Amino acid sequence: MVMTVVHPITRAWITTGGTGAQNYDEFADDAEITAIIEANPHSALGIEMPHRAPESLGKSFADALPDAVSRLAEAKADGSYTPAERVVVLYRISAPGEESAYGLFAMVDTDQISTRADEPGLVIRNEDVFIAKVRERVALAEALGHLLSPVLLLQTGRGDDLHAALAAAADAAGAAGAPAATDTDQAGRTHAIWPIGPGPVQDELTALAGGGELVVADGNHRSLAAQTGGLPRFLAVVTTPASVAIQPYNRLVSELTTSPQELLDRLRAAGAQVTPVPGPVEVPATGGTVVLQLPGQAYAVTLPHTGASRLENLDHALVERLLLRDALGLDPGDKRITYVGGDYPASWLAGEVEAGRAELAILIAPVTVDDFVEVNLEREKMPRKSTWFTPKARGGLVVAELPDRA
C-alpha cells in the first residue's frame, strides 16, 4: 500500500439527507444562524453552533455543549445518519452552468500541519486565526467525540491527476446508482456523496489526495483545533485547484473610533489617495484600490505600499495595518469588526451602513490564486479572513467519529 498522509475514516456517519449545513464561520450575522436552524431543525448547524439554536438562545457556547451532544445523538438515533467503516467519501458539487467541483472526504494526519518555513509537514496552514474560535472548536470536538465540519485542503502537487480521478470515480459511481445522499446549499448548488470502501479505488484516491503539499483553503480554525485538542487526525475534504475560486472577503465596522472626516484625513496623511465614488458601490475587480462606504458617501482609496514584501502589500494586509490599526486603532480581532465573505454582495454591505447597523464597510478585491499560492509556497501567513473559497464544503454530510481516548 502507498504511504500517504490521507486516510480512510475509521468510523463514519453518512447523512441520509437534511443534515447539510453551511460552516459556522460563513455568517455575518448571528440571527441568521438561528433563523436557518429554525427553518432546518435537522441541520448540523444546530450541533456546530449550539448556542445559536432557537431552544438554546441565551446560553453561552460552553453551556450549550450538552445540547449539541443530545442533538447529535438524536440525529444518529432517528436515522439521519447511517454508519460506515473504513471509508473515504467521494464528493461532487454541481450547478447548472458551472463546472463540477470534486473532493474527497477523508482523515488527514495532524502532525503534518506546517505553519512556517522551518516546520516540516505536507499540510500548509496559511492564515492567522482567532484563538477564541479555536477554543470553541476544541471544546465541541471533546464534547461530541465527533467531527462534523471538514477542513478544505487544496492539493497543489497532483491536483490535475486527482481532479481527473475524482471525476472518473464520480461518473462510475453515478452510473452504478444514485448518490448516498444529496444536499442543496443556499446558492442552489447540489452536493452529492458516495462512500467508497476498502479496495483499489480507495487506495488510488487516497494516494493522489496525499500526493503533494496540501494548502488549507478553508478551516484554519478547525485545523488548529485538531492540533490544540491533540487529535491524531482531522476530517478534511481534499479538493483540486480546478474545483475552487476565490471570492472577495470584505469587512464591516460597527462603530468608528473617530469621525468619518478624520478617518479620511488620517488616510490621506498616511499617503493614501481618496476619491469620492458616485452611485452604488461595487467590490473592486482587481487589487490596488479598496472602497470605503461611509454613511451617505463612498470613497475609492488607494493605500500606499508601505510593506517590504508582496505579502505585506496585499490589499487585505494594507487594510489591516494602515486603516484598521493605524487610522482607527482597532486590533483585527476587535468585536467591532465583522469579516463578511463573498456570499454577501456589495449592496448588502452598503445597506448595513445606510441602515445604521454599521458605520463603515470596506470592500476589497479578491486575492488572486497566484498570490495565494506564492504566499503559501513561501510558507508565509495570509492576512486573516482574506480568502473566501467557493464552492464551500458542507458540514454535516460526513461525520467522523473520534477514537476513544480513555
Per-chain topology:
Elements: E1 6-7, E2 9-15, H1 30-39, H2 45-48, H3 61-77, E3 81-94, E4 101-109, E5 113-114, E6 123-124, H4 131-144, E7 146-147, E8 151-155, H5 159-176, E9 181-184, E10 190-196, H6 200-209, E11 214-218, H7 220-228, E12 233-239, E13 245-247, E14 249-253, H8 260-269, E15 273-277, E16 290-294, E17 297-302, H9 315-327, E18 337-341, H10 346-354, E19 360-363, H11 369-377, E20 388-390, E21 398-401
Parallel strand pairs: 5-6, 6-11, 8-12
Antiparallel strand pairs: 1-4, 2-3, 2-21, 3-4, 3-10, 4-12, 7-21, 8-11, 9-10, 13-20, 14-18, 14-19, 15-17, 16-17, 16-19
Helix pairs in contact: 3-4, 4-7, 5-6
Question: What does this entry look like structurally?
Answer:
The chain folds into two domains: 6-244 and 391-401, Alpha-Beta Complex (Conserved hypothetical protein from pyrococcus furiosus pfu- 392566-001, ParB domain), CATH 3.90.1530.10; 247-387, Conserved hypothetical protein from pyrococcus furiosus pfu- 392566-001, domain 2 (2-Layer Sandwich). With 406 residues, it is an alpha+beta fold. Helix 3 crosses helix 4 (131-144), helix 4 (131-144) crosses helix 7 (220-228) and helix 5 packs antiparallel against helix 6 (200-209). The radius of gyration is 21 Å and the shape is globular. A hairpin with a 2-residue loop joins strand 16 and strand 17 (297-302). The mean pLDDT is 92. It has helices at residues 30-39, 45-48, 61-77, 131-144, 159-176, 200-209, 220-228, 260-269, 315-327, 346-354, 369-377; strands at residues 6-7, 9-15, 81-94, 101-109, 113-114, 123-124, 146-147, 151-155, 181-184, 190-196, 214-218, 233-239, 245-247, 249-253, 273-277, 290-294, 297-302, 337-341, 360-363, 388-390, 398-401.
